[in-house]
Design goal:
This protein has helices at residues 18-29, 41-52, 69-79, 101-129, 148-167, 185-191, 195-205, 214-225; strands at 9-13, 33-38, 59-63, 84-87, 132-137, 172-179, 236-239. By secondary structure, the protein is of the alpha/beta class. The chain has a single domain (9-182, 214-231), classed as NAD(P)-binding Rossmann-like Domain (Rossmann fold, 3-Layer(aba) Sandwich). The protein has a seven-stranded parallel sheet, sandwiched between helices. The longest helix has 29 residues, at 101-129.
Length: 248
C-alpha cells in the first residue's frame, strides 16, 4: 500500500537508536524526506548514510539536544517547514518520592517540554499549508512505581488531546503512541537486562508472548503520518502486545 508520504518532510527526534531509529527506517521506506536529530552524532550519521543508500527520499541529520531551547530553535530553523513532526526523544526516569527538583525538571524537559516547544515552532507552517501531523511517542499510564517520566508523559497526553481539538479543523492531526516493551538499548540494558527475568515478565504481562521491535512503532507512525489517517486525532494508541491491564 502506498501511504502517500513521498515528498513529505518529517523531523524525527531521538532518531539515533531504538524507537526513533525504527521510525526513521519506516518513513524512509515510504519515500518521505527526513531530518533526523539526536545527541549521538556518530550514530545519527551512520543511520543517515544507510538510509540515503535506499535512494527513496532525502535524509539530513542535525546533532542536537532537545532539552536545550537554543538547540530546539536551531534544529527547527535548519529543518524548514516540516509537515510531519515525530517526537521520539524521551527516557524512563525512576524516582523516589523525595527526588530533587533537578530530577523532575530534567524529565519534563526531555519527555514533555521538547515536544511542546518543537510543535509550537512547526505549527505555523502546518497552518499555512492546511496540513500537518504531530506524533508523540509517550508511554504507559499504568506505572508500577514512581517514575518522573510517567508524570511527564501524562502531561504530554493531555496537552496533545487539547491541541488536537484546536488544530483539527485546519487539517492537522495530533496523536500519541504508547509503546509497550520494545527491544531497544534502554529496555534490554536497564529495565530488563536479565534474560530469565525478561522471559518471566513476558509470560506474566505480555499476551503476545514477546517484546516488540522498533519497526512495530515505526509502522504505526507511518500510517498516522499519512493522508490516510486524516480522521484520527487526539488518540493515545497502545502498541504493546496487549500488555496494558486497563482501557486507555
Amino acid at each position: 500500500m502506498d501511504l502517500g508520504l513521498k515528498g513529505r518532510l518529517a523531523l524525527i527526534t531521538g532518531a539515533s537508536s531504538g524507537i526513533g531509529e525504527g521510525v526513521a527506517r519506516c518513513l524512509a521506506a515510504e519515500g518521505a524526506d527526513l531530518v533526523l536529530t539526536a545527541r549521538d552524532g556518530i550514530s545519527l550519521e551512520r543511520l543517515a548514510a544507510e538510509l540515503r543508500e535506499l535512494g527513496k527520499g532525502s535524509v539530513r541529520n542535525i546533532e542536537g539536544d532537545v532539552t536545550n531551547p537554543g538547540d530546539i530553535r536551531r534544529i527547527a530553523d535548519a529543518t524548514g517547514e516540516a509537515g510531519i513532526l515525530v517526537n521520539c526523544a524521551g527516557g524512563s526516569r525512576p524516582a523516589k518520592w523525595n527526588a530533587g527538583e533537578e530530577v523532575w525538571e530534567e524529565s519534563f524537559a526531555l519527555n514533555f517540554d521538547a515536544a511542546r516547544r518543537l510543535s509550537e515552532l512547526f505549527i505555523p507552517g502546518m497552518l499555512k499549508a492546511g496540513w500537518g501531523r504531530i506524533i508523540n511517542i509517550s508511554g504507559s499510564m499504568e506505572p508500577r512505581g514512581l517514575n518522573a517520566a510517567a508524570a511527564a508523559k501524562a502531561a504530554l497526553h493531555v496537552w496533545a488531546k487539547g491541541l488536537s481539538c484546536d488544530l483539527a479543523a485546519h487539517g492537522i492531526t495530533v496523536n500519541s503512541i504508547a509503546p509497550g516493551r520494545i527491544n531497544s538499548r534502554q529496555i534490554l540494558t536497564q529495565l530488563h537486562p536479565d534474560e530469565d527475568r525478561r522471559q518471566k515478565f513476558i509470560e506474566e504481562n505480555v499476551p503476545a508472548g514477546y517484546f516488540g521491535e522498533p519497526c512495530d512503532i515505526g509502522h504505526t507512525v507511518a500510517f498516522l503520518a499519512s493522508p490516510l489517517a486524516r480522521y484520527i486525532t487526539g488518540a493515545v494508541i497502545p502498541v504493546d502486545g496487549g500488555m496494558r491491564r486497563s482501557a486507555m
